[in-house]
Amino acid sequence: MRRFVVWGDNALARRLVGELINSYGAQVTVIVPSLTQNLAPEIAELCAPDPWSMVVQERRLSAATFLRPELAEAEAIAFVDADDVANVDAALIARETLPDVRVVLRMFNTVLGEGVASRLRNCAVLSASEIAAPAFVAAALGDNTPTSIRLTDGQQLMAVDRDAAVLSVSDIRCGLAITATGESLPADDDAADLVLVSTYGHPLPAPRRVGRHPLRTTRLVLKGGLRRVLVGVAALIGTGTVVVAAVKDLSPWRALYVTVLTTLGGANADLGARRVSQAVDLALVVAGVAVIPAVTAAVVNTLVKARLKIAAGGLAVPVGNHVIVIGLGNVGARVVQELHDQGIDVVAVDRSSTARGVAVARSLGIPVILGDARDTETLDAASVTTARCLVMVTTDDVTNLEAALLARSLRADLRVVLRLFEEDFARRIKVAFGINHSRSVSYLAAPAFAASMVGSEVIDTIPVGRRVLLVAEVRVGAHSRLEGRPFHEVNVVNEIRLVAVQTGRPGLEQGVQTFWWPERNRGRTLDRAHTLVVVATRAGLVSLLERAA
């Protein structure tokens, strides 16, 4: 029986342990810093029915930890703590002790992750937030948001709504899902409304970047008290112009000229003028004395407030049809980035100015509201009544639900996407409150981590509702049940769809060759030099790995 090790006591660790035990029938040893804190007790409950799976306590990892017999026999170790540095440190300790074990790292920092993966042999680096973010974005924008996928040979695929696809029918590689019924990988490709297309030879348009509006500062200045002062000055000058034209018998332009100079610049006394004319001059001079300081004070006050607001990154001008993202942790930061890349206006909200996504949002010029989303003032500041969607991705289910219900009380038809851990809880929320869109980060990410631990290279995931389809590369093993079998026998309705077969390896002289539409190559058979590119459900990938081993 296969044995794996998981280090961590969070939601992803819990879901990953369940995936390995229930889907792969594996023995799992879980290392936690405390048996009573965080989700360690729940993880222990998952392991309890299996006499070979266990939870061990190690307050601090060391080389001695990995010398324990149950750890030394492991095929792979997953380090899924929320701290990138802690995961890297733990992986380095494990590699020193167990040089041949496969290491799977959870990391948010992709640059650091690529560096670690290139230096640690037999190592895979995955980001739970990167895997889950497209599902939240798709739910926010309408569930069929295009998902881009790049294969190891550089070719690119895209999951798109069939009606929105601008490519020819020959570019469709397979049907992914019938979203109305939730059926994945149907037998009839033509029935699927979510399809996988090849973008080879069809350059993708660059994402529309949303920059600062060129008149943003002007709009900030011309608002509030300053606007009222300027309107008053304009009314005074207009009235003065009419009076001067009538009293002094001047043309409209000359009357305006005299009025503006007199009001803003003072006037020379004219003792020979008529009394009515002198009275008008006096009134304008007195008004000018009052107007100039008022305008100066209003301009200074407004400019200072505008400067402070822009510097703080808050919502400085009214917006509409935007997406509000509440919770700027790892997932929130990814969601904000992806929405921005797709040209969607975003307003970000978090209680803490030190949250990871705050710096990300401000670097993109996205307004950031610092406050509690459970307060009406915070939601009003984010302009919730004019938003197209509210995405709640804090790590607390209760906070997410509370803020969502408050937002719905302010606008009943607001589209809401919730981050919820438990699927049963999400189902009850849907029935009780009519909130139809909820996602679980650990539920979306765990299948990719589990598949990576057993040796499959998960390229990407395609969100379909609360679940994901896995895009994976699986090598055909020598003497496996797949070797010598026709290409089309890889397919299993509703579970596995073969997209392409690759020959060769990256870095070799001949490089990688990709055969698309394998069903057209029914005369060809698989051999140990082939790598399968498949789209699969979690159960489908498990069965395929068994056949390819």
From TrEMBL:
Kindly list the biological process annotations in GO that this record carries: monoatomic ion transmembrane transport
Q: Which residues form the RCK N-terminal domain?
A: 320-439
Q: Which PROSITE patterns match?
A: RCK_N
Highest taxon listed in the record's lineage: Bacteria
Give the matching Pfam families. Answer: TrkA_N (PF02254)
List keywords of the entry alphabetically: Ion channel, Ion transport, Membrane, Transmembrane, Transmembrane helix, Transport
Q: Which residues cross the membrane?
A: 229-247, 282-304
* The name this protein goes by in its record: Potassium channel family protein
